[in-house]
Amino acid sequence: MKLVKIETGNFMADGGALFGVIPKVMWEEKYPADEDNYCNLAMRCLLVDTGERKVLIDTGAGAKQSAKFFSWHRLNGEASLLNSLTSAGYKPSDITDVILTHLHWDHCGGCVYYDEQDEPKVRFDNANHWVSEAQWQNYVAPNSREGVVYFPDNMQPIFEAGLLKVVQKDAMIMDHIEVRILNGHTQGNMLPIIHSPQGLVAFMGDVIPVLPSIRLPWVSAYDTMPIESIKEKQMFLKEAVEKGICLFFEHDCYNECATVAMGSKGFGVDKLFTLNEWSNLNSGV
Ligand SMILES: [Zn+2]
After folding, report:
1. Cα 185 to middle of ligand 1, angstroms
2. 267 alpha carbon – ligand 1 mean position (Å)
3. What percentage of the chain has pLDDT greater than the value 70?
4. How far, in Å, from the CA of 280 to the mean position of ligand 1?
5. Tens digit of pLDDT for each residue in 125-178?
6. pLDDT-derived band of residue 202, with 50, 70 and 90 as boundaries?
7. What is the mean pLDDT of residues 28-57?
8. Which long-range contacts (CB under 8 A, 24 or more apart) does 239-246 make?
9. How much distance in Å is there from the Cα of 282 to the middle of ligand 1?
10. Ligand 1 centroid to 117 CA: how many Å?
């Protein structure tokens, strides 16, 4: 099995929103912000190549939304979904499965693009696109808070092409890949866990978006049910300590992966790695 990080570019978000009720004097020691209080965030996806299947987890922001929308979110960085896949030696048609943690714009925007005739086209047209039933329902009929972060053209063409696969509950959805359904960030948010020969890797998405969010009360203001987020995080981190799970961060610009330890102040970092360092370490290379 091969695990490859797929960088798709960065965007910026308000640090106050990212760290919720935590005061800036505390979070700015752990994650930098610019003079406008914006923090830079990666959109780091993960390719799991099992040999038989080529599975992409999340697809970044894509390029469909208006220049005005993207300017609010200050897209930056050189990386793009297609370039990163090409450098890793993959074509979009190689991808057999796309797992979407949820359908907020920065997680699924790369699934669809507009061609030269301005027609929407599915980027990974050989792939099943896995979304939880609860998240799909939330996307189709959004509440007034999340409505602004869902875009119909990100997923409608997938549905129309018959490429949507709906997940009802926690399951091994294919060999080596388990998904857990959590609801704190958004209804039906999926947490994918890869059972690799080197050990377990969890794709944290917005459950623990950046390294400092490992601390239990450090919950983003984007979460729709923050108390639920804390309970879910606590359960997951307890298991992560017991099983030595490697946490893969989608949004942390500065840290790719970490293992977790329980210290005197609660859950914290055990070791930091790049994904390659973690894989090599555990395969004895
Ligand atoms: Zn989100």
Report:
1. 7
2. 23
3. 99
4. 31
5. 999 999 999 999 999 999 988 988 999 999 999 999 999 999 999 999 999 999
6. very high
7. 97
8. 240/202, 241/267, 241/270, 243/200, 244/199, 244/200, 245/193, 245/199, 245/200, 245/201, 245/202, 246/199, 246/200, 246/201, 246/202, 246/273, 246/278
9. 31
10. 31
DSSP state at residue 29: T
Supply the pLDDT for residue 283. 79
Q: Does CATH place domain 2-283 in 3.40.50.300?
A: no
Written as six digits, the tokens of 252 are: 């942390």
β-pairing, 97-99 with 54-57?
Answer: parallel
Protein residues within 5 Å, CB atom, of ion ligand 1: 104, 206
| pLDDT tens figures, 90-109 | 999 999 999 999 999 999 99
Q: Measured in angstroms, how far is the CA atom of residue 189 from the centroid of ligand 1? A: 8
Report how far ligand 1's centroid is from the alpha carbon of 235 (Å). Answer: 20
Task: Please give the distance, rounded to the nearest whole angstrom, from the Cα atom of residue 182 to the centre of ligand 1.
Answer: 12
Q: How far away, in angstroms, is 277 Cα from ligand 1 center?
A: 27
**Closest C-alpha among 234, 168, 239, 166 to residue 202:** 239
For 50-115, strand residue ranges (E) read: 54-57, 97-99, 112-114
- What is the domain partition of the chain in residue ranges? 2-283
What residues does 119 pair with on adjacent strands? none
pLDDT tens digits for 164-201?
Answer: 999 999 999 999 999 999 999 999 999 999 999 999 99
